[in-house]
Design a protein that fits this description.
The structure holds two protein chains of two kinds.
Chain A lengths: L3 E4 L2 E4 L5 E7 L5 E7 L5 E8 L2 E5 L6 E7 L2 E6 L8 E8 L9 E2 L3 E5 L1
Parallel strand pairs in A: 2-11
Antiparallel strand pairs in A: 1-3, 3-8, 4-5, 4-9, 5-6, 7-8, 9-10, 9-11
Chain B lengths: L2 E4 L4 E4 L4 E3 L1 E4 L5 E7 L5 E7 L5 E4 L2 E4 L9 E3 L8 E9 L2 E4 L3 E6 L1
Parallel strand pairs in B: 2-12
Antiparallel strand pairs in B: 1-4, 3-9, 5-6, 5-10, 7-8, 8-9, 10-11, 10-12
The chains are: A mainly beta, B mainly beta.
Amino acid sequence: DTAVSQTPKYLVTQMGNDKSIKCEQNLGHDTMYWYKQDSKKFLKIMFSYNNKELIINETVPNRFSPKSPDKAHLNLHINSLELGDSAVYFCASSLIFGASYEQYFGPGTRLTVT
Amino acid sequence: GNSVTQMEGPVTLSEEAFLTINCTYTATGYPSLFWYVQYPGEGLQLLLKATKADDKGSNKGFEATYRKETTSFHLEKGSVQVSDSAVYFCALTNAGKSTFGDGTTLTVKP
Protein backbone atom coordinates (compact mmCIF):
# COMPACT_ATOMS: atom_id res chain seq x y z
CA ASP A 1 0.00 0.00 0.00
CA THR A 2 1.58 3.28 -1.14
CA ALA A 3 1.74 5.87 1.64
CA VAL A 4 1.79 8.98 -0.56
CA SER A 5 0.68 8.58 -4.16
CA GLN A 6 0.59 11.04 -7.04
CA THR A 7 -1.02 10.97 -10.46
CA PRO A 8 0.03 11.21 -13.14
CA LYS A 9 3.67 10.13 -12.97
CA TYR A 10 4.47 11.86 -16.25
CA LEU A 11 2.75 14.83 -17.84
CA VAL A 12 3.72 16.29 -21.22
CA THR A 13 1.79 19.31 -22.41
CA GLN A 14 2.07 22.48 -24.44
CA MET A 15 2.56 26.04 -23.31
CA GLY A 16 -0.66 27.78 -22.40
CA ASN A 17 -2.51 24.64 -21.35
CA ASP A 18 -4.04 24.02 -17.92
CA LYS A 19 -3.23 20.81 -16.03
CA SER A 20 -3.76 19.20 -12.63
CA ILE A 21 -1.73 16.86 -10.47
CA LYS A 22 -3.39 14.81 -7.75
CA CYS A 23 -1.96 13.64 -4.45
CA GLU A 24 -3.34 11.28 -1.83
CA GLN A 25 -1.90 10.06 1.46
CA ASN A 26 -3.20 7.12 3.49
CA LEU A 27 -1.10 7.80 6.59
CA GLY A 28 -3.70 9.79 8.48
CA HIS A 29 -1.44 12.84 8.48
CA ASP A 30 -2.74 16.35 9.07
CA THR A 31 -0.21 18.27 6.97
CA MET A 32 0.51 18.11 3.24
CA TYR A 33 2.95 19.93 0.98
CA TRP A 34 3.82 20.60 -2.64
CA TYR A 35 7.46 20.90 -3.72
CA LYS A 36 9.09 21.72 -7.06
CA GLN A 37 12.42 20.10 -7.98
CA ASP A 38 14.30 21.56 -10.92
CA SER A 39 16.76 19.87 -13.26
CA LYS A 40 19.65 20.57 -10.85
CA LYS A 41 17.77 18.74 -8.09
CA PHE A 42 17.12 21.94 -6.13
CA LEU A 43 14.01 21.44 -4.03
CA LYS A 44 11.70 24.36 -3.34
CA ILE A 45 8.61 24.28 -1.15
CA MET A 46 5.53 25.75 -2.80
CA PHE A 47 2.60 25.24 -0.42
CA SER A 48 1.84 23.79 2.99
CA TYR A 49 -1.64 22.73 4.10
CA ASN A 50 -2.73 21.78 7.58
CA ASN A 51 -6.14 20.16 8.05
CA LYS A 52 -7.25 21.38 4.61
CA GLU A 53 -6.21 24.97 5.36
CA LEU A 54 -3.43 26.77 3.47
CA ILE A 55 -0.76 27.81 5.96
CA ILE A 56 2.28 28.55 3.81
CA ASN A 57 2.39 29.94 0.28
CA GLU A 58 5.97 30.51 -0.80
CA THR A 59 5.45 33.35 -3.29
CA VAL A 60 4.32 31.01 -6.00
CA PRO A 61 2.71 32.61 -9.09
CA ASN A 62 -1.08 32.83 -9.03
CA ARG A 63 -1.21 30.38 -11.94
CA PHE A 64 -0.63 27.66 -9.34
CA SER A 65 -3.68 26.90 -7.25
CA PRO A 66 -3.68 24.11 -4.68
CA LYS A 67 -6.90 22.55 -3.42
CA SER A 68 -7.44 20.26 -0.48
CA PRO A 69 -10.90 18.63 -0.53
CA ASP A 70 -10.06 16.70 2.63
CA LYS A 71 -7.09 15.93 4.86
CA ALA A 72 -5.99 13.00 2.71
CA HIS A 73 -5.89 14.84 -0.61
CA LEU A 74 -4.01 17.83 -1.97
CA ASN A 75 -4.27 18.65 -5.65
CA LEU A 76 -2.31 21.17 -7.67
CA HIS A 77 -3.84 22.97 -10.63
CA ILE A 78 -1.63 24.96 -12.96
CA ASN A 79 -3.04 27.48 -15.43
CA SER A 80 -1.39 28.83 -18.56
CA LEU A 81 1.63 26.56 -18.35
CA GLU A 82 5.03 28.06 -19.19
CA LEU A 83 8.31 26.46 -20.24
CA GLY A 84 9.79 27.29 -16.83
CA ASP A 85 7.18 25.14 -15.12
CA SER A 86 8.94 22.02 -16.41
CA ALA A 87 10.15 20.20 -13.31
CA VAL A 88 9.38 17.30 -11.03
CA TYR A 89 6.61 18.10 -8.55
CA PHE A 90 6.55 16.23 -5.25
CA CYS A 91 3.73 15.93 -2.80
CA ALA A 92 4.60 15.18 0.83
CA SER A 93 2.84 14.75 4.16
CA SER A 94 3.74 14.87 7.83
CA LEU A 95 1.92 13.83 10.97
CA ILE A 96 1.14 17.31 12.26
CA PHE A 97 2.40 20.78 11.54
CA GLY A 98 5.41 20.94 13.81
CA ALA A 99 9.13 20.84 14.14
CA SER A 100 10.12 17.26 14.83
CA TYR A 101 8.03 15.32 12.34
CA GLU A 102 9.60 14.03 9.18
CA GLN A 103 7.93 14.29 5.81
CA TYR A 104 6.86 11.39 3.62
CA PHE A 105 7.26 12.09 -0.08
CA GLY A 106 5.34 10.80 -3.06
CA PRO A 107 7.12 9.42 -6.14
CA GLY A 108 6.87 12.69 -8.05
CA THR A 109 5.20 13.94 -11.23
CA ARG A 110 7.53 14.86 -14.05
CA LEU A 111 5.97 17.78 -15.92
CA THR A 112 7.35 18.69 -19.32
CA VAL A 113 6.06 21.81 -21.03
CA THR A 114 6.85 22.12 -24.75
CA GLY B 1 15.39 33.47 8.08
CA ASN B 2 16.36 29.82 8.00
CA SER B 3 18.99 28.41 5.67
CA VAL B 4 20.85 25.16 5.05
CA THR B 5 24.23 24.95 3.36
CA GLN B 6 25.46 21.62 2.09
CA MET B 7 28.77 20.52 0.77
CA GLU B 8 28.79 20.91 -2.99
CA GLY B 9 28.86 17.82 -5.11
CA PRO B 10 29.12 15.70 -6.94
CA VAL B 11 31.05 13.34 -4.68
CA THR B 12 32.59 10.19 -6.14
CA LEU B 13 33.98 7.47 -3.88
CA SER B 14 35.18 3.91 -4.20
CA GLU B 15 33.28 1.16 -2.44
CA GLU B 16 34.18 0.84 1.26
CA ALA B 17 35.48 4.42 1.44
CA PHE B 18 34.54 6.74 4.31
CA LEU B 19 31.85 9.29 3.56
CA THR B 20 31.33 12.77 5.00
CA ILE B 21 28.81 15.23 3.63
CA ASN B 22 28.96 18.55 5.44
CA CYS B 23 25.84 20.44 6.41
CA THR B 24 25.57 23.70 8.35
CA TYR B 25 22.46 25.67 9.13
CA THR B 26 21.17 29.05 10.23
CA ALA B 27 18.00 29.24 12.27
CA THR B 28 16.50 30.98 15.25
CA GLY B 29 15.15 28.90 18.09
CA TYR B 30 15.46 25.12 18.16
CA PRO B 31 15.05 23.51 14.76
CA SER B 32 14.84 19.79 14.08
CA LEU B 33 17.40 18.48 11.61
CA PHE B 34 17.01 15.80 8.96
CA TRP B 35 18.88 13.95 6.26
CA TYR B 36 16.82 12.71 3.34
CA VAL B 37 17.99 10.47 0.50
CA GLN B 38 16.66 10.42 -3.05
CA TYR B 39 17.41 7.39 -5.22
CA PRO B 40 17.17 7.82 -9.00
CA GLY B 41 13.61 8.26 -10.20
CA GLU B 42 12.13 8.28 -6.70
CA GLY B 43 10.88 10.71 -4.10
CA LEU B 44 12.86 11.70 -1.03
CA GLN B 45 12.84 9.41 1.97
CA LEU B 46 13.97 10.07 5.50
CA LEU B 47 17.42 8.72 6.28
CA LEU B 48 17.79 10.01 9.84
CA LYS B 49 16.86 12.88 12.09
CA ALA B 50 17.77 14.65 15.34
CA THR B 51 15.44 16.89 17.28
CA LYS B 52 17.70 18.49 19.89
CA ALA B 53 21.29 19.45 20.50
CA ASP B 54 23.77 16.56 20.90
CA ASP B 55 21.25 14.02 19.58
CA LYS B 56 22.73 11.51 17.17
CA GLY B 57 20.55 10.17 14.38
CA SER B 58 21.53 6.88 12.77
CA ASN B 59 20.18 4.51 10.15
CA LYS B 60 21.62 1.96 7.67
CA GLY B 61 25.17 2.70 8.83
CA PHE B 62 24.77 6.47 8.37
CA GLU B 63 24.93 8.83 11.31
CA ALA B 64 24.84 12.55 12.06
CA THR B 65 25.10 14.52 15.30
CA TYR B 66 23.21 17.74 16.01
CA ARG B 67 25.90 20.23 16.99
CA LYS B 68 24.40 23.47 18.20
CA GLU B 69 27.75 25.10 18.96
CA THR B 70 28.89 24.75 15.35
CA THR B 71 25.36 24.76 13.84
CA SER B 72 26.23 21.60 11.94
CA PHE B 73 24.71 18.22 11.13
CA HIS B 74 27.34 16.40 9.06
CA LEU B 75 26.43 13.03 7.54
CA GLU B 76 28.94 10.17 7.88
CA LYS B 77 29.22 6.53 6.92
CA GLY B 78 32.20 4.35 7.59
CA SER B 79 32.07 2.18 4.49
CA VAL B 80 29.91 3.12 1.50
CA GLN B 81 28.39 0.67 -0.96
CA VAL B 82 27.43 1.04 -4.61
CA SER B 83 23.80 0.98 -3.48
CA ASP B 84 24.37 4.22 -1.51
CA SER B 85 24.64 6.15 -4.78
CA ALA B 86 21.92 8.79 -4.52
CA VAL B 87 21.27 12.47 -3.82
CA TYR B 88 21.42 13.45 -0.14
CA PHE B 89 19.53 16.43 1.26
CA CYS B 90 20.09 18.10 4.60
CA ALA B 91 16.99 19.85 5.93
CA LEU B 92 15.67 21.65 8.95
CA THR B 93 12.19 22.31 10.23
CA ASN B 94 11.63 25.34 12.43
CA ALA B 95 8.22 26.48 13.66
CA GLY B 96 6.66 24.16 11.12
CA LYS B 97 8.54 25.59 8.14
CA SER B 98 10.98 23.33 6.27
CA THR B 99 14.16 24.40 4.49
CA PHE B 100 16.21 22.03 2.35
CA GLY B 101 19.82 22.21 1.26
CA ASP B 102 20.73 22.05 -2.42
CA GLY B 103 21.45 18.32 -2.32
CA THR B 104 24.72 16.44 -2.76
CA THR B 105 25.01 13.76 -5.42
CA LEU B 106 27.01 10.73 -4.30
CA THR B 107 28.32 8.14 -6.74
CA VAL B 108 30.00 5.04 -5.37
CA LYS B 109 32.12 3.02 -7.80
CA PRO B 110 32.85 -0.69 -7.38
